[in-house]
């Protein structure tokens, strides 16, 4: 390879390193330095927990009773049974006999009208009697009986949006480890952005906002035609530095099982593909620059080794970035209950940036017509 081409590639490699350094130090250290309140707060504002469920009989039977047993003084649980045909109605009716604060909203299949999760959630929000809404999924289980307490306590002052965290349960497979790694990297990005005063997304497995915010912004109307985005698109359009906070105390986590096969994981990810292009311009640019610079960083490092152009210097740059990642992420991973996968950081980080770019391209061309 010509010397001037090698030099240009090395300069680009250094530029990618600087950009990645900015994200790591400028953004992720916000979460590194953040410590949630440890004392259990005294709060009693009325809360409505809303769950949209389609063919979730097994998960409802396993998780819903735990949600209904939360140690919170004033709350209801609204479950929207969205066109289920797996006996979910029987499960819900049985549970309702034991827990009077369970409210059931039923949607039936219509040949002419196709419903989706956003429609189901909208009906659930309309049926909720309280101003403060807390969302999760049927396959999620709160870490403790203080989940509602922790999330509700964050509604102070001007707060209208609370971004929670929902990790996947630990498994033994390679896929499980990577899914958990991808999930924590996503969380680091959106939680750090919120702490920096520029929130751009949240996850529906653990998210809270007010009914006033929902109806004041016309709910999901602007993106009802998009299958996914009931969580991140809503947050992207309505979150601000003034109205958004995070809650990452371990009491407030909601856990769920990760997909166990590549096919089921890809199907899950396909529902989320393409949503990012609907984000605000600055957020699309922020995420794109991170994804592309991270990918090119590893590609250009490999080229430096292959063509033996400043391999020691390139190796030193890589080592510096990795050491810095270990320092910052060791504390964050522990906070977010994924400390066991810190040791695979160098390997998974490279795969993660490949994944972001490949799935980003796929998301541009693939459309999904069913949410479940």
Automatic annotation (TrEMBL):
It comes from Mucilaginibacter psychrotolerans. InterPro entries: Glyco_trans_2-like (IPR001173), Nucleotide-diphossugar_trans (IPR029044). This is Glycosyltransferase. Residues 48-165 form the Glycosyltransferase 2-like domain. Belongs to the glycosyltransferase 2 family. One of its GO terms (molecular function) is glycosyltransferase activity. The chain crosses the membrane at residues 6-25, 287-306, 341-366. The lineage of its organism: Bacteria, Pseudomonadati, Bacteroidota, Sphingobacteriia, Sphingobacteriales. Keywords: Glycosyltransferase, Membrane, Transferase, Transmembrane, Transmembrane helix.
């Amino acid at each position: 390879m010509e010397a001037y081409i090698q030099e240009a590639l090395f300069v680009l490699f250094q530029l990618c390193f600087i950009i990645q350094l900015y994200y790591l130090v400028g953004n992720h250290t916000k979460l590194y330095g953040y410590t949630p309140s440890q004392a259990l707060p005294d709060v009693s504002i009325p809360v409505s927990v809303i769950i949209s469920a389609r063919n979730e009989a097994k998960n409802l039977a396993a998780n819903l009773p735990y949600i209904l047993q939360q140690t919170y003084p004033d709350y209801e649980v609204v479950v929207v049974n969205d066109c289920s045909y797996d006996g979910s109605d029987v499960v819900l009716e049985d549970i309702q006999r034991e827990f009077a604060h369970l409210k059931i909203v039923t949607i039936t299949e219509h040949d002419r009208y196709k419903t989706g999760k956003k429609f189901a959630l909208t009906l659930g929000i309309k049926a909720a009697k309280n101003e403060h809404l807390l969302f999760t999924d049927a396959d999620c289980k709160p870490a403790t009986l203080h989940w509602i307490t922790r999330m509700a306590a964050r509604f102070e002052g001007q707060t209208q949006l609370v971004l929670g965290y929902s990790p996947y349960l630990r498994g033994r497979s390679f896929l499980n480890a990577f899914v958990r790694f991808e999930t924590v990297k996503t969380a680091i990005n959106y939680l750090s952005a919120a702490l920096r005063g520029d929130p751009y997304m949240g996850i529906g497995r653990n998210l809270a906002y007010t009914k006033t915010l929902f109806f004041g912004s016309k709910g999901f109307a602007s993106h009802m035609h998009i299958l996914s985005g009931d969580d991140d698109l809503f947050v992207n359009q309505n979150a601000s530095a003034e109205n958004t906070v995070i809650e990452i105390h371990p009491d407030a986590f909601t856990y769920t099982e990760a997909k166990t096969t590549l096919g089921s994981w890809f199907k899950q990810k396909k529902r989320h593909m393409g949503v990012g292009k609907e984000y605000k311009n600055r957020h699309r640019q922020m995420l794109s620059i991170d994804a592309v610079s991270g990918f090119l960083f590893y590609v250009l490092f490999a080229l430096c080794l292959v063509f033996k152009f400043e391999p020691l210097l390139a190796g030193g740059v890589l080592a510096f970035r990795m050491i810095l990642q270990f320092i910052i992420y060791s504390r964050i991973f522990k906070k977010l209950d994924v400390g066991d996968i810190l040791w695979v950081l160098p390997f998974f980080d490279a795969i993660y940036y490949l994944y972001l770019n490949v799935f980003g391209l796929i998301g541009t061309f693939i459309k999904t017509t069913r949410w479940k």
